[in-house]
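REQUEST ID: PR-0412
SUBMITTED BY: lab tech R.K.
PRIORITY: routine
TASK: structure prediction, single protein chain
INPUT:
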Amino acid sequence: MDHVRLEIEGMSCGHCVASVRSALSGLAGVQVAEVRIGGATITLHPTQASVAALIDAVQDAGYEAREAA
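STATUS: complete
OUTPUT:
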C-alpha cells in the first residue's frame, strides 16, 4: 500500500470535504485516510489506483488537486 498526500484547492466547507471524500472513496483500490479543507491523505493499492486517477477524481468533483511535495 502506498500513502499519497494531495493538496486540494477550492474546498471551503464540510460539504466540499464530503464531496472529495466520496469522489476518492469511489475509486477501486483507494482507502481515504483523511480529507480536510486544503488536502487529503490517501492510502492506495498501487496496482489498482494511481495518483493521476486520484487527481482526476478530485477534478471531476470540481476542485483542483496536485500531489503534495
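NOTES: The two ends are 19 Å apart (CA to CA).
REVIEWED BY: pending
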